[in-house]
Specification:
Helix content is 45%, strand content 24%. It has 528 residues and is an alpha+beta fold. Helix 12 crosses helix 19 and helix 17 runs antiparallel to helix 19.
């Protein structure tokens, strides 16, 4: 073979080397360097079988004779690399002749034979993957992001570094990326979920499946890939082929090597789950409303007293005003003063009625920033007469930080009124010489707490674990719904509620914790 022929061998992807019939290597291409680990300079001139520690299925002499007789040989040869690693090589030997027809060289091409157990395991793994891909009732997609990746490289070369800002300033680019992303494969459930008769109807670009309202979800998925995150998931809206939109849990897993960005996507239809959650929230709201109305019934005497006070004052001031006007010399200034008092008492009565209407109203919860201590003060107005009638003293220690929570004012009032009424009733079961309720608010880090303590008999240890269970009650006429509803309200606000005894001598302490606005919920709780 000429030197030019030897150089051509470097362009062959398989390992190729040439040896003479003395066994010495005369040519050694780059693929041989990669496979066996020996450089060309080291290999040329060496005895091939000694260098590579070759083991043939027959003797080397018989193999050479067979090769000369037939012109070629093919089979597996065991060899050792420069690093001492054993390997099996599938070798093909062919004889090279001179112009006179005499054999002068043996040309060998070889490729490494992978471990059969590894190959089998790979086949089994692929079969398992395919079974999961097709059998699960989850929509699986295989997305080809290679065009998207190429466009991102181009943008980076052009000087774009803050992709989030760039996408925000150039929303049309996101749409272009969405069109560039290709659906390479889907499972059968995807065809059913998205309303196509066959798989080919789903393959193509992503744009038809993403309504405008979910563009931000796609943007975040791309940004997660740029940030080399292993996966990204979100709840968003997706669109079927017929144009209808459904709620979806969208998850994308990125490969470790993002050179091609072939990614696996899972889509789960969560429409029914969301409907069930909405129904549960409505039921919880209904129960909370029923509990408020029931609580108002228990506070009838207190409510009547609260309304009667300003009404009685209005009547008295009106009578006084008439008398001032009916004298021989009408006392206009005093009559004017009486009218001012009437107006103030009327406002007091209107405030009482407004609080009652708010507590009794059946409406959807509405979250707003509110002062927790202000809500406690308003709750105390509801139960003021009840506290006076039962000789209960209330001490309110507001936090110096004036804690603000993101909450529904009426629902939070309901929680606090319920805790106060429970404390009043508990102290009524015991001959307490000193009936006192202490309410404290505290701010610690990103959490806001409200603590209600009483001087009653405390909570029986056997009852502590059941105190927030639905329909559990220690009262003869109780329904067992007050504290469970308090718990559902607090948890719906991202908080948690807890009960314990103050000490061994008695007294109960109930406390709830809410997250500060723009903070995470309590550990173990989910933000509503």
């Amino acid at each position: 073979m000429t030197s030019e022929s030897f150089e051509i061998l470097d362009h062959v992807e398989q390992a190729v080397f040439v040896r003479d019939f003395n066994g010495r290597i005369r040519a050694w291409n780059k693929a041989s360097e990669t496979l066996y680990g020996y450089s060309r300079e080291v290999a040329i001139g060496q005895l091939a079988d000694s260098l590579l520690d070759s083991e043939y299925p027959t003797s080397a002499g018989d193999l050479e004779a067979s090769c000369i007789a037939t012109g070629r040989w093919e089979g597996e040869v065991k060899r050792k690399s420069a690093h001492g690693k054993q390997m099996s090589v599938h070798a093909r030997l062919s004889v090279h002749y001179d112009r006179a027809g005499c054999p002068i060289h043996l040309v060998e091409t070889g490729r490494k034979v992978e471990d059969k157990s590894v190959e089998q395991e790979l086949r089994l793994s692929e079969a398992r993957y395919r079974n999961l891909f097709q059998a699960l009732s989850v929509s699986f997609w295989e997305l080809d992001f290679s065009d998207v990746n190429q466009r991102l490289r181009t943008l980076r070369k052009s000087g774009v570094s803050d992709f989030r800002k760039y996408f925000l300033d150039n929303p049309q680019v996101v749409i272009e990326l969405m069109t560039a992303a290709r659906v390479a494969d889907v499972n059968d459930h995807t065809v059913v979920l998205f309303g196509r008769g066959n798989k080919e109807g789903v393959l193509g670009n992503l744009r038809p499946f993403w309504p405008d309202e979910s563009t931000n979800a796609f943007t975040e998925a791309v940004l997660s890939g740029i940030a080399h995150k292993p996966h990204y998931w979100t709840e968003c809206k997706l669109r079927r082929i017929d144009g209808s939109v459904f709620d979806a849990l969208f998850t994308i897993a990125y490969p470790p090597d993002l050179s091609g960005w072939t990614s696996m996507v899972a889509v789960i239809d969560i429409t029914e789950r969301n409907r069930a959650q909405e129904m549960l929230q409505r039921l919880q709201s209904d129960f909370a409303h029923a509990a408020r109305v029931s609580m108002l019934g228990e506070l009838t005497a207190s409510i009547a007293h609260e309304v009667n006070q300003p009404l009685a004052a209005i009547a008295a001031n009106a009578d006084a005003g008439l008398r001032w006007l009916e004298t021989d010399q009408p006392e206009i200034d005093r009559a004017r003063e009486s009218i001012k008092w009437i107006m103030e008492d009327a406002r007091r009565a209107a405030d009482v009625i407004a609080r009652l209407r708010s507590m009794a109203a059946h409406r959807a919860p509405e979250r707003n920033p509110v002062s927790l201590d202000d809500i406690i003060r308003e709750a105390l107005l509801f139960v003021r007469y009840e506290l006076q009638a039962r000789s209960v003293t209330v001490v309110h220690h507001p936090s110096a930080e004036s804690p603000i929570v993101l909450a529904d004012r009426t629902q939070l009032q309901q929680v606090i009124v319920n805790l106060i009424i429970n404390a009043v009733q508990a102290m009524g079961q015991r001959d307490c010489s000193r009936r006192k309720i202490t309410i404290r608010t505290n701010v610690v880090d990103d959490k806001i707490s409200c603590i209600v303590e009483d001087t009653g008999p405390g909570i029986h240890p056997n009852y502590l674990v059941h105190l927030f269970d639905s329909f559990f009650t220690t009262k003869q006429e109780g329904m067992g719904m007050g504290l469970p509803i308090c718990r559902s309200i607090v948890e719906a606000h991202g908080g948690c509620i807890h009960a314990e005894n103050v000490d061994l001598s008695g007294g109960a302490r109930l406390s709830f914790i809410l997250p500060a606005p723009d903070r995470e919920p309590c550990v173990g709780e989910q933000r509503a």
